Amino acid sequence: MKKIILILVPFLFFGVIQAQETVSFSFNHLALSVKNLNESAAFYNEVLGLEEITNKTKIEGIRWFSFGEGKELHLVSIVKEPVILNKAVHFALSTSNFDNFIKRLEEKKITYSDWPGVTNKVTLRADGVKQIYFQDPNGYWIEVNSVVK
Known about the structure:
Blueprint: H1 2-19, E1 29-33, H2 37-46, E2 51-53, E3 62-68, E4 71-76, E5 90-95, H3 98-107, E6 123-124, E7 130-135, E8 141-146
Parallel strand pairs: 1-4, 5-8
Antiparallel strand pairs: 2-3, 3-4, 6-7, 7-8
């Protein structure tokens, strides 16, 4: 009897493992709590060039923007709890027009920095990617980096 149990246990265990389905994910959206919805919407439209799209929730105080390829940014002004931020809490965007984007920030007088915080300095990572950090009107950190070719 013991031999039968010892033989059957691995098969039962394997069957349980095999029955579990793999779950995969794809990025859908990022939601940010904002104080002034119109100011934030203008920032993301004018500075990052994001197109405003239909807010499918139809809830007032929320606006949606498209990153493209089905990826979205949702700005939410209806939640009033404070948000505590630091540079480690950021989202990153890549662009093949990195130098042109730096010019856009400078034209709009938006301060950017490298990771340590040196103003108007670009970080050059060991892999050759350039990156900068700046903040939106609510203090959220945004990284913009170059695309490795």
